[in-house]
Each structure stands twice: as C-alpha cells, then as structure tokens.
Amino acid sequence: DSFYDGGLYLDTDKAIEHALHLVEDGADVIDLGAASSNPDTTEVGVVEEIKRLKPVIKALKEKGLSISVDTFKPEVQSFCIEQKVDFINDIQGFPYPKIYSGLAKSDCKLVLMHSVQRIGAATKVETNPEEVFTSMMEFFKERIAALVEAGVRRERIILDPGMGF
C-alpha cells in the first residue's frame, strides 16, 4: 500500500509476481509494506495489515527469499517475528518498549528509521536545517540504547536517516 505505487500490489498474486521480478532484476531483499506511511493516507488497522502480509510472506518464504517488513505497529511486528522475517523496518524507530522483549529474542535485523515526531503517524513538520543532524544523532543514541538495554545485539540494528517526509 505504498504512497508511491497507488496500491498497485495490494492483490496477493500481483505482489508475489512483482517481488519475483525484483529478484530477477537483482534485489537481495524484498521490503513489504502493507500500510502506507504517507501523512495524507487513511490508517490501515492491525488486522488488515496482517491479512495483507500473511499470504505474501508465506509465498516468498517458500521461495527462500529474504524478506523485510515495513511496519510501525508492535502487533504487526510480533506477527513478523513469528513469521521469521529477516528484517523489520520501523519508520518510528521502535518507540514501543512492549515489543523489545520479542525483538531481543528474535534473529531479525532491525531497520531503525529516524522519526522527527518520534512516535505516531508521520506528519509534515518544518525542521530547522541547522538542527537536523544533531537531532538525528540524539534520536539514534536514545533508541539504540533502549534496544541494546532490552537485549537486542547492536550488530542487528541498521540506521536509516529517514528523510522521506
């Protein structure tokens, strides 16, 4: 449900077919996003997000593909851990401590994206350009420390500056 593709791959078969084409073209990891993070879109609920992801994850796992899931909802992240996805990509940077124990016990890599608003849906925010780097570094230090303290190995954490919105 990408803000970019206009929902072209909401159909399970189309999503799987597109993923296979991406692999043929050289992709090493398929990043699945079942709910757009665009500030101007309608929120997709947890049940619907999992419903969209489940058959695609299953099919791609059966093909032996490396899978990343882009989600900021802890319930969906728990589902992804159960499905043994390779990466969880959180546009909010894993702000919810209730998921930390599950993340620590899993083997998946965590893409920790910088988030100006730190928690909640993406919003359009004016940012002082002179403060961007300092703010980003403070954000990453806080989130890395929280995850490592919860038992997540540092080498599993990938940083994303998240300059999208």
UniProtKB/TrEMBL annotation:
It is an enzyme of class 2 (transferase). One of its GO terms (molecular function) is dihydropteroate synthase activity. Residues 1-165 form the Pterin-binding domain. Its cofactor is Mg(2+). Its EC number is 2.5.1.15. Keywords: Folate biosynthesis, Magnesium, Metal-binding, Transferase. It catalyses: (7,8-dihydropterin-6-yl)methyl diphosphate + 4-aminobenzoate = 7,8-dihydropteroate + diphosphate. GO terms for cellular component: cytosol. One of its GO terms (biological process) is tetrahydrofolate biosynthetic process. SUPFAM superfamilies: Dihydropteroate synthetase-like. This is dihydropteroate synthase. It comes from Escherichia coli. The gene is sul3.
